[in-house]
């Protein structure tokens, strides 16, 4: 009897270890962004700083101000595009629309699309573009901002390359990443928005992030 009990306990322990390892493996990583020193009880303590999104303020498709406060307590997916893009943007946003449809109405999920065409993509054009795409309500925001601010934020905070290039189709070059941000404004992962398998992975990771405490 004791041997059977021991076997059961060992089996339960193995199952618990497997479940624990599975949970650890499915936690999304944080991206280090340096270290900071603080004083605790008179002693210096070194903490890792993780890549996070700075405070921001942009005009949206309705000519209303959208700030980082609108995303407090939510996970969100951000991207950089322009409405007249003849290459990757239509593919990116068709794929992102599938993600939007999956989480439509979820108060913990938002989407934020930054135009990099500061000349042409005024709010009214963003609104027309959003309507054609099929998005509505406040869950998916399309925003405009000054060139220097948007480009600096793309490269510094989101780690996405964007630039003007007269030789490029449409006059701009940019990476087609969909960047996943957690409820603490930290960058957790980036996905190629032109590839279906990457978009599927994004949705799976969003499910994980929504359960994270």
Structural class call reads alpha+beta
Q: Alpha-carbon distance between the termini?
A: 41 Å
Low-confidence stretches are: 1-25
The count of helical stretches stands at: 5
Give a short account of the largest sheet. Answer: 7 strands, mixed
Strand order of the largest sheet: 4-3-7-6-5-10-11
Average pLDDT: 88
Q: How do the SSEs run, as a string of H and E?
A: HEEEEEHEHEHEEEEH
Question: What's the CATH architecture?
Answer: 3-Layer(aba) Sandwich
Beta-strand content bin: 25-35%
Principal-axes geometry comes out as globular
- Provide the number of structural domains: 1
* Highest CATH level, the class: Alpha Beta
What is the CATH superfamily classification?
Glutaredoxin
Rg (CA only): 21 Å
**Percent of residues in helices:** 25-40%
Describe this protein with a few key phrases.
213 residues; alpha+beta; Glutaredoxin; 7-stranded mixed β-sheet; two-stranded antiparallel ribbon; 5 helices; 11 strands
């Amino acid at each position: 009897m004791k041997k059977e009990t021991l076997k059961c306990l060992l089996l339960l322990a193995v199952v618990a270890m497997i479940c624990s390892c599975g949970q650890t493996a499915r936690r999304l990583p944080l991206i280090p962004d340096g270290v900071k020193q603080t004083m605790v009880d008179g002693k210096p303590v070194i903490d890792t700083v993780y890549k996070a999104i700075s405070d921001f303020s942009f005009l949206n498709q309705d000519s209303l101000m959208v700030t980082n406060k609108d995303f407090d307590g939510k996970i969100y997916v951000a991207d950089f595009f322009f409405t007249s893009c003849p290459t990757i943007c239509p593919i990116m946003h068709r794929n992102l629309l599938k993600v939007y449809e999956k989480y439509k109405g979820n108060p913990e999920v938002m989407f934020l699309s930054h135009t990099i065409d500061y000349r042409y993509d005024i709010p009214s054009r963003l609104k027309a573009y959003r309507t054609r795409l099929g998005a509505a309500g406040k869950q998916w925001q399309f925003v405009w901002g000054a060139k220097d601010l948007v480009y600096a934020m793309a490269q510094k905070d989101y780690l996405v390359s964007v630039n003007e290039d007269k030789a490029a189709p449409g006059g701009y070059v940019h990476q087609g990443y969909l960047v996943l941000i957690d409820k603490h404004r930290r960058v957790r992962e980036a996905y190629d928005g032109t590839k279906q398998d990457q978009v599927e992975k994004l949705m799976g990771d969003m499910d994980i992030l929504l359960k994270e405490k």
